[in-house]
Design goal:
- By secondary structure, the chain is mostly helical.
- About 60% of the residues lie in helices and about 5% in strands.
- The chain has a five-stranded parallel beta sheet, with helices on both faces.
- The longest helix has 21 residues.
- The protein starts with about 45 loop residues before the first helix and ends in an 11-residue tail after the last helix.
- It holds the Pfam family TPR_1.
């Protein structure tokens, strides 16, 4: 699940006169007024005003305020006094009083452009955006070269959604003051919102050139660079923003998102935690930490993070949904369904949540969501990806209701759309199988046991062939660590090839396994490792390979009915499913002839029909001591994040055997190819 992104750019407002916070109550100002002058005679009105302005400019707000209020009490009418006193009132948060004082300055001197500017700022803070716009325009009318007024007008126009006009205002401010860093920065924000990303980048870089210590500009540049796909540069920008402002919570947060996208999950976790430390009540940070923790396999911690996000924002639909996914992976199916229902209640058109709940459907109560799922309106203005989720969800519900023909219709719609989004890569997969088969024929055999390496068990075969059930059975052994669908074998092989064989392939793989577990046995369920079977058998001496397979039509149907999270694009083509199935079957047949003692055949149909016999045979082949717990893998408390995470929570059963017969018409393209082979010519009989 993608992370949320905090993309709100930082904007700055400029006033003509610098203001300071005031640590006193206004009631004290009227007492004990003393006026400091350099002349022994009574000071003039102008001298007092100049002294007040001097105090104000020096940051001595208390003394400045006393003098301003002295004038007001004496009913002296001077526009500068009311204007500057308005600034002080604004800094105290007394916006209504500040507005009155500033309007009084304008009443005294209607052509005082600076007062119109400051009134615009006050009105903006009061939420009176249209009035603020008028004030800024009046300031510009009185002083067309007033850069700050053009700049602040740009901010208001942006807030009002008038982006093109805002762009013109910022450009005018820059024309009048080319070194106006904040104007360049906000112009970058507008250009980004208008989709002019390259121009926006130039504006941000100009801002940084003018003010290298402008943390907000580095942050905004990072946001833009991420959108441009320049992740490494975005990382550097966020890090610079943090260097300049270590407590910049949004920068830590977005740095975490970038680091996740770059695959630096541990660093990303640290960044998210830092953002939370600075800003503990920010629900999005807790949510994104949950996403990271799930990817790191820390499901219990992820659950806590999602729950915290929901505590802070009860209507956070994404958090409810992702909590449901975690609970499903942890086997808490009833709670998972409730979380998905909550997500849908908050967000009735939440496509992926419908898909997830269709996989669970633990309860038949209050299924209002099903009416919503099958409504015509739910597909309106939906992306292709969301339409795929809706079609698969409908197919799943209809399948459970045994309306197989209608389910077939939606399965075809879903898979046709998936192929339109991302075509099948079956040819690439087939070519890889052949290349690795040729590689396995090279005379390289490693008989040397890798040092300090656990026993490696590779579970290979087609998706949806019983591999998750097998993994659950094996991990009932307390000495087994199930690594899941991990890609460390291919990573080790690529490193081995780059090393020009100076390295030991088995040791490279063993080191990666040791990074994940200290247990004595490790199962690797990356099913496409079947392509590496020959290489495993020849170069990893302590390896055992278990090949999972089942009736091809049941297997192909199950693949076609599954919306895989990533990869397996061929799964949306029945023809390509058959091609891949037959290829892996042929490859494995040849490998079994060469490495009989290393490979165990596990037929899923036999396993679920006679688990006692089949599991005992497997445990014996592995050389393990028999325990009855192997017959109850559904009691395994481990987390499961594969497509079988719901089914594996039920006792072993044979319900899925022969399921293809319910979809015989839909499967015709697959049946035609299979029946042309000698092995499967009678498969439908």
């Amino acid at each position: 699940m993608d992370l949320s992104s905090q993309d709100g750019e930082v904007k700055k407002k400029v006033t003509e006169i610098k203001t300071f916070s005031v640590p006193f109550a206004l009631g004290e100002i009227k007492k004990n007024i003393t006026i400091t002058t350099n002349t022994p005679s009574k000071p003039s009105k102008e001298q007092i005003i100049n002294q007040a302005l001097k105090f104000h400019s020096q940051g001595n707000i208390s003394e400045a305020a006393k003098l301003y209020q002295y004038f007001i009490d004496k009913v002296f009418k001077d526009h500068r006094v009311f204007s500057n006193y308005g600034i002080i009132l604004k800094s105290l948060g007394k916006l209504q009083e500040a507005e009155l004082s500033t309007r009084k300055a304008i009443e005294i001197k209607p052509d005082y452009a600076k007062a119109h500017l400051n009134l615009g700022i006050i009105l903006s803070d009061l939420g009176k955006l249209e009035e603020a716009e008028l004030s800024y325009r009046k300031a510009i009318e009185l002083n067309p070269d007033f850069a700050e007024a053009h700049y602040n007008l740009g901010i208001i126009l942006s807030d009002l959604g008038k982006l093109e006009e805002a762009e013109l205002s910022y450009c005018k401010a820059i024309e009048l003051n080319p070194n106006f860093a904040e104007a360049h920065s906000n112009l970058g924000n507008i250009l980004k919102d208008l989709g002019k990303l390259q121009e926006a980048e130039l504006s941000y870089r100009k801002t940084i050139e003018l003010n290298p210590d402008f943390a907000d500009a580095h942050y905004n540049l990072g946001v833009l660079l991420k959108e441009l796909g320049k992740l490494e540069e975005a990382e550097l920008s966020y890090r610079k923003a943090i260097e300049l402002n270590p407590d910049f919570a949004n920068a830590h947060y977005n740095l975490g998102i970038i680091l996740k996208d770059l695959g630096k999950l541990e660093e990303a976790e640290l960044s998210c935690r830092k953002a939370i430390k600075i800003k503990p009540d920010y629900a999005d940070s807790h949510y994104n930490l949950g996403v990271l923790l799930k990817e790191l396999g820390k499901l219990q911690e992820a659950e806590l993070s999602y729950r915290k996000a929901i505590e802070l924002n009860p209507d956070f639909a994404n958090a409810h949904y992702n909590l449901g996914i975690i609970l499903k992976d942890l086997g808490k199916l009833e709670e998972a369904e409730l979380s998905c229902r909550k997500a849908i209640k908050i967000k009735p058109d939440y496509a992926i949540a419908y898909y997830s709940i269709s996989l669970i459907k633990y309860s038949d109560e209050n299924n209002i969501w099903q009416d919503q799922l099958f409504s015509k309106n739910i597909l309106i203005n939906k992306s292709q990806e969301d339409q795929v989720y809706i079609y698969f969800a409908r197919a799943n519900i209809l399948h459970k209701e045994k309306q197989y023909e209608e389910s077939s219709t939606y399965l075809d719609l879903a898979n046709e759309l998936k192929l339109a989004i991302k075509p099948s890569e079956s040819n690439k997969l087939l070519s890889k199988s052949q290349a690795l088969f040729i590689e396995s024929n090279k005379n390289e055999i490693n008989k040397k046991e890798p040092r300090n390496s656990p026993e490696s068990i590779f579970i290979v075969g087609m998706p949806r062939s019983g591999s998750t059930l097998l993994e659950s059975i094996l991990s009932m052994n307390n000495e087994v660590c199930d690594l899941g669908e991990i890609n460390i074998l291919e990573e080790s092989f690529l490193e081995y090839k780059k090393s020009k064989k100076d390295a030991n392939f088995a040791e490279l793989y063993g080191e990666k396994v040791n990074n994940h577990t200290e247990l004595n046995i490790a199962t690797n369920k990356n099913l496409y490792n079947y392509q590496y079977t020959g290489i495993i058998a020849k170069r990893i001496p302590n390896a055992k390979i278990i090949h999972c397979y089942r009736n091809p039509l049941d297997n192909i149907l199950s693949i076609y009915r599954t919306h895989f999270a990533k990869g397996n694009e061929y799964s949306s083509s029945l023809v390509d499913c058959v091609r891949i199935y037959l290829d892996q079957e042929e490859i494995m047949t040849q490998y079994k002839n060469r490495f009989k003692s290393t490979i165990y055949d596990l037929n899923y149909d036999s396993l679920v029909s006679n688990p006692n016999k089949e599991i005992k045979s497997l445990i014996s082949w592995l050389g393990w001591k028999w325990e009855d717990k192997y017959l109850s893998p559904h009691l395994n408390p481990r987390s499961v994040s594969t497509a079988s995470n719901v089914q594996v929570r039920s006792p072993i059963n044979s319900k899925s055997i022969g399921g293809w017969k319910n979809y015989k018409d839909m499967l015709k393209p697959a049946i035609e190819i299979l029946t042309q082979t000698d092995r499967y010519q009678d498969i439908t009989l």
